[in-house]
Amino acid sequence: MALVEVQVPDIGDFDEVTVIELMVKVGDTVKAEQSLITVESDKASMEIPSSTAGVVKEMRVALGDKVKQGSIVLVVEAQSVEGLASSVERVPTAAIPQSPTPAPNPQPSTPNPVSSTLEVHVPDIGDFKDVAVIEVMVKPGDTIKVEQSLITVESDKASMEIPSSHAGVLTELKVKVGDTVNIGDLLAILSVQGSALSVERGVMPAAVPAVPVPATSTTPAMPASAAQAVSALNTERPTLNAPLGLPHASPSVRKFARELGVPLDEVKGSGLKGRITPDDLQAFTKAVMAGAVQTKAQAAKAPAASGGDGAALGLIPWPKVDFAKFGPIERKEMGRIKKISGANLLRNAVLIPAVTNHDDADITDLEAFRVSTNKENEKSGVKVTMLAFLIKACVAALKKYPEFNSSLDGESLVYKNYWHIGFAADTPNGLMVPVIRDCDKKGVLQISQEMGELAKKARDGKLGPAEMTGATFTISSLGGIGGKYFTPIINAPEVAILGVCKSTMEPVWDGKQFVPRLMLPLSLTWDHRVIDGAAAARFNAFLGQILSDFRRVLL
Ligand code: CAO
């Protein structure tokens, strides 16, 4: 196994470029032609491919380093002698055109010595076919300087700006973002004044300059094409002053983003100088899939938390009323948490075919037990709450009816073998749902204590994201406040939620007479795609049995 130093190859007359992205790390197996690093000048960026297949043993460059011809990028343990040999001989796919090509002469379409029009064509871009236009930097009416960048094109390995061959006023642009172009394609029509035509005729700058490419022999050096490409990055274009205006990302990241449909300008880059890395793309995609982040397009389509026009749902517009016409008003922006929870609630209310079953549980004995326990534990400082008993009772019911502890994933149901229970907490900032983990393994005292701590954190606005995620079922208790029944909204991707209201003493017929019993109103909302009405009724009945005789939790 030979150790091979992969060097920056001949990069023409250009001094240094900055390493802006490392695409491999020690231990990675790289193929010949696989991109290793991305380098950038002020006008373009490109990926430098490997000439050698093997395993990366050592990185010799770091982010921000300046590299030039001969700089060692990394050390690779070549896969085999054959691999090494082939890596020397093989020229990876061109990232940028390989040969200098005289610029096509612009064709004046009107032989007018005072003012004439002139066509600007795509110059020689070598072997490249169908490169995508990813940015148009000018618009009709703009005064264009010679060599000013008109558009940016991109292949899967490099992006480059295509300059104008002439100065003039842009009268017509023949390409738009998303088009693909080839050498000779008509890009734009300029209106040029008098002598400009004769002075500038024939000086169309190629998008990529000619660079002689020395043969690589002793070390597996960068392929000729890459050398030319890097040289292209450093091409002096004195009048190129249009800012690139694109999100800071390598061509491959931009290509990947297009494939995923990720709007790059909405992704925050974590790389050098805010550069967007593949990890940033993945994190953004995950966040969107999890509903934690909305793209601008989604936000535009989705009805807002309140007052959205409902157009996306095919509904008539939200009524627009000038409330001030009817009396004095005060307008207040909704808080951040209300906005976020509002959007989630709306999605869950609209997308889940939810049904709510109401029932009552006799908690006379349980409440007596709770009160006596609290008396006994007065000194401990931990107050046992009815909600803690409800959590334990729900875990028992969830174990008996596991579909209530599941989530829909496409056409599959994911059954969770853990029981993390969320509870709605009313806070000055709005509704929050802290999660108590592994409630099956905890006693009522511990659950009460954790609930107290989490509820306090929620009210103080100190809950971390980890303390609000992972719930398998949620309880929303309005018992301390009042009410009889309500219809809680399921906290997706859970499939059920239990609403609890204030218990009251009620006359209950025991078969012989009416007796006073403390009755707790239960409201169970369930996702009808996952749960049937009969199962919901059974769940509530079972819950009622446990609450009326808590010893059943042990069964
Ligand atoms: N029936 C009768 N009394 C009840 C009860 C019930 N179901 N549940 C609680 N109580 C009593 C408690 O025993 C307590 O009385 P004491 O002070 O005399 O002991 C009092 O009501 C206050 O209880 P609490 O609400 O502070 O405590 P909790 O454990 O029941 O609830 C918490 C904690 C965080 C869930 C609660 O404070 C809260 O925020 N509830 C609102 C949840 C909510 O907003 N849900 C709606 C979501 S949909 O918009």
Describe the largest sheet. Answer: 8 strands, antiparallel
Structural class: alpha+beta
The small molecules bound here are: oxidized coenzyme A
Global geometry: elongated
Number of strands: 27
Separate helix tally: 11
Question: What is the overall pLDDT average?
Answer: 81
The rounded Rg comes to 34 Å
Give the low-pLDDT segments. 81-113, 195-244
Instruction: Determine the strand fraction and express it as a percent band.
Output: 25-35%
Helix content: 10-25%
Cα end-to-end separation: 65 Å
**Main β-sheet, spatial strand arrangement:** 7-2-4-5-13-12-10-15
Structure, explained:
By secondary structure, the protein is an alpha+beta fold. The chain has 11 helices and 27 strands. The protein has helices spanning 81-89, 196-200, 224-233, 251-260, 278-289, 296-301, 336-351, 364-376, 386-400, 444-459, 533-548, and strands at 3-7, 17-22, 29-30, 35-40, 45-49, 54-59, 66-67, 72-78, 115-121, 131-136, 143-144, 149-154, 158-163, 168-173, 180-181, 186-193, 354-362, 406-409, 412-415, 421-423, 425-427, 430-432, 435-436, 473-477, 496-500, 504-509, 514-527. It has an 8-stranded antiparallel sheet, with helices on one face. Strands 17, 20, 23, 24, 25, 26 and 27 form a 7-stranded mixed sheet that branches. A hairpin with a 3-residue loop joins strand 12 and strand 13 (158-163). The longest helix has 16 residues, at 336-351. Oxidized coenzyme A (CAO) binds next to helix 9, strand 21 and strand 24.
